[in-house]
Amino acid sequence: MGDVYDRLYRQLEELIPGLRDLKPGDYRKSGAPGFMDLHLDVLTRTKEELRIALAHNYQQNGDTIADPDMEIRVYLIPGWEKAEALTYQDARRYDEVYPNPNLVNLRVKKSLNDFLTQWLKNLKDQGHRLEDEDDVKAQEAERKAHEEAVLYHFGEGRLEAENEEPTTEDDEDEGEE
Length: 177
Hints:
177 residues; alpha+beta; 2 domains; six-stranded antiparallel beta sheet; 4 helices; 41% helix
């Protein structure tokens, strides 16, 4: 099954179609009935890694509050696709796995990756999917065109059948004489 970093990558790939194709500045939003919207911001990208932020946001006294907001590193190295939590923030706290380049907080690292694993499972169960809006619009247009073609096809068939006069064996015999 792989380690936690493999699982996180697979969970993100399922939640975010086209994960490998994201570019800095990309933004996506997912809504699921009865749940807070989910927001994706692409922060940075190199050939080998992508940094994204996932957040639920709500309004309080006119301010947007993240609850939670997580920064995640996604490794894009072919054959070594992995992901890990880097930061966690909500209205009450901020945690960071790498407080400086030479230091890793192992307790926070385990805690944030465990939280992210469960959060991504919950997001999937809630029906969230961070699809590219242009792809969604194209798929919707394609679906609508297909439905219209099916309706037209079956509509034409009904019209032809309604306009045809019923034939009987006697009518066929008369045509032979």
